[in-house]
Structure formats: C-alpha cells, structure tokens
Specification:
- The chain is mainly alpha-helical.
- The chain has one domain.
- It has 7 helices and no strands.
- Helix 4 packs antiparallel against helix 5.
- The longest helix has 25 residues.
- The termini are far apart.
Length: about 160
Amino acid sequence: MRFLLPRISELTETQYQLFMFAQAIVVRHAKSVIPSPVDTDVAEGVASVAATLETAGKGIIYEHRAASIPAQRIATEISAAIGDLTKRAGSDGARLERDAVRALRALEHTARDARQEMTDPVRPEVSWVTFASRIMTGVEPPAAVAASTETESKLVI
C-alpha cells in the first residue's frame, strides 16, 4: 500500500472509485486471457482511453489506439465500461469523463512505476498486474463467473 497510496491521494472520491473500477476491469481481463498482459500493456491501454477522453473533451472525435494488441484489448474493455457509465450518468456524463481521465492517468502512472519501485522477483514485467491482483482478491474473471453459474444446480430444496 506504500506504493499505491501516494499515487491516488490526490484523487477525489469519484476519481478513486473510477480508478478502482478500471483496475478491477484490468485484473479481470488479465485473469481471463492468455497470455496475460504485462504492465506496459496496461499503461498503454489505459493511456489510450485517457487520451481519447481528453480529445473528446476538447470537442474532437478521435480514438487513440494502443500500440500492442493486448493493450488495445484492455483499452476496448475500459472504454466500453466508461462509455456505459457516462450514458447512465446522463447530464453528468461530461464530468464523469473528466474524472475518468484523472483516474486513468493515475492508473497509467501506477502501472509504469511498478517495475522500478516494487519489482516482482519472479516476473518483473508484471509487477503491477501481480500487485493489483493481490489487492483485488474478490475479483473473478467473467469466464469463471459464467462457468460457476452454469455448473450450479438449479434444484431448490
């Protein structure tokens, strides 16, 4: 937590919630795909969504693309989730997008800094992914959730 708290201390409550929301999306994604994304994929994916939202805030419609396929997959999932949240927010959608930019930039910097400041001894390229997975212990990948509901008995006693 010594690593994470200084990076999120400046966030508002809404921005913190969006940070944790995006982090949960990335952790779920990382657990459900092979090969698992590395920290640079996370940083690039999140940065491309933040850049797209910043550009849209200026009135320009342009989707920034991540450089790698794993990063683009992360960007697609986060972008869809934030798009859904902004639709639900109605007239507060623009404010939510601005808060999402701050949260995503914080997540980007956290993923980039993890390798230097808290290197995983086994796989240094996934230091942030490993850390995020540990603090988000209740997060299950969507495939595991679907599989668990399919195998549960429908019998009511």
